[in-house]
TrEMBL record:
The chain crosses the membrane at residues 23-42, 48-65, 77-99, 105-123, 135-152, 172-191, 198-214, 220-237, 244-263, 340-360, 369-388, 394-411. Residues 188-352 form the O-antigen ligase-related domain. This is O-antigen polymerase. The keyword tRNA processing does not apply. It is a multi-pass membrane protein.
Length: 419
């Protein structure tokens, strides 16, 4: 597949402009492909590579004289149900600055989260039709190299990083492991469907990612990989039944989020807490109780987008029972639905849930393999969101956005090569 395609009829683009566009398309594809390895080296770098890729794609589109066409196609996508739901969630996020006690932290969180989302949206519009086999092979090589780097570094006690004077804490590979997790599904689909005996390469990649995740400190990545496998098997047996179960699970998770702390406290026995001491299960339950108490102070609209890191310093803390105030200073509730409730209230929770349900509906319209893989990816991301990092971290938004772009490219490649 050619990387730049055919210029629109009547376009004044010169040969030089076409050559420049070709170069920019290669930068866009390369930036997205090397993301896993870049994350293994610099564990917050996905927004940078996603941004470079998106800007390069925009530049190439403009040089080809297709910018207005891109604007029309983007507007059309945004005014479909899923796009409208996302725009409504964005509008609420921006408007919430008006009642946020710390406007600076809200604005910073908006930029950190929504800029990668915007970049991913651009790439999803333009990159799938430009994707090449070389780019997928580069992604495969980048994933394999990242896995080997993580495994070797951890097995050697991060000796190389220490010798170079770099940060040498083992947990810095948690984010790269999660990035590998979400980039794995589209890569496996492409290998299995587009490469002769690609299942063997796919199996090797799967083993490498599994080994890297298992060796890392990221319990969330390990959980995500297990959930991904179970969800794929279930969806392969029945896409519709799996989608229904997943939709019900997301509804339950969002509805119960404000009460997650008390529910967990009453259901988790001491023996389980003792077994999970390394994962700080008791502390996590205490965090959920604290932020749940904060939700009950402002349940309708929340405290404002991105306010979780400053909750301990906000006026809300004085309305929270004293025994639950301490863990409001932890930074975020380690649960995405609870963080949405905390910062955007019931309105934000309903909008976020609408987005997820619309995405599930769209997935069910795909072929069996793509639908099964996409549901597995969504299930893994959901599992990570229930126990992992802050909701608005840019590296996670960029990693998920890149995964969606690769998945769309995989879908298009399968359609174009279908007999």
């Amino acid at each position: 597949m050619n990387a730049i395609g055919t210029v629109s009829i009547g376009s004044p683009a010169s040969v030089r402009r076409l050559q420049a566009a070709e170069m920019l398309w290669r930068v866009a594809l390369g930036g997205l492909a090397v993301m896993p390895l870049a994350m293994a080296v610099a564990h917050r770098s996905t927004p940078l590579f996603l941004g470079v890729s998106a800007l390069s794609a925009l530049g190439a589109t403009a040089l080809e004289g297709r910018f207005r066409q891109l604007v029309r196609e983007s507007a059309s996508a945004l005014f479909r149900p899923t796009g409208i739901a996302v725009l409504a969630f964005l509008a609420l996020s921006v408007i919430s600055i008006s009642w946020s006690q710390f406007n600076d932290i809200s604005i910073q969180a908006l930029g950190e989260f929504w800029l990668p989302i915007a970049g991913a949206f651009i790439l999803c519009q333009v990159l799938p039709k430009r994707m090449t086999r070389q780019a997928f092979w580069m992604l495969a090589g980048s994933v394999a190299a990242a896995c080997l780097l993580i495994i070797v570094e951890l097995e050697t006690g991060l000796t190389l990083r220490r010798s170079l004077g770099m940060r040498a804490d083992s947990f810095i590979f948690n984010r790269p492991s999660l990035t590998l997790l979400v980039l794995l599904p589209p890569l496996l689909v492409w290998l299995v469907t587009q490469i002769p005996r690609g299942w063997a390469v796919a199996l090797a990649i799967l083993v490498l990612v599994g080994a890297a995740v298992a060796r890392s400190d990221s319990g969330a990545a390990g959980l995500g990989l297990i959930v991904m496998g179970l969800a794929f098997v279930s969806a392969w047996a029945s896409v519709r039944a799996t989608a229904i179960v997943m939709a019900a699970g997301f509804v339950a998770a969002m509805a119960m989020a404000p009460f997650l702390g008390p529910i967990s406290e009453s259901l988790i026995p001491p023996a389980v807490h003792k077994a999970l001491a390394g994962g700080h299960s008791r502390e996590r339950v205490a965090v959920w109780q604290s932020f749940g108490a904060a939700v009950r102070v402002q349940p309708g609209l929340g405290a404002g987008f991105g306010m979780s890191p400053r909750m301990r310093k906000s006026k809300i803390v004085w309305k929270v029972p004293k025994e639950h105030r301490r863990f409001l200073g932890i930074g975020h509730p380690h649960n995405l639905p609870l963080q949405i409730w905390t910062e955007l209230g019931m309105v934000g929770a309903v909008l976020a849930l609408a987005i997820v349900l619309l995405v599930i509906r769209a997935i069910c319209r795909q072929s069996r393999l793509v639908a099964s893989t996409s549901l597995a990816l969504l299930a893994a991301a959901g599992a990570v969101a229930l126990v992992g990092h802050g909701a608005w971290q840019g590296w996670w938004a960029a990693s998920l956005g890149a995964s969606v772009a690769w998945m769309l490219a995989t879908c298009r490649t399968r359609l174009e090569t279908r007999p």
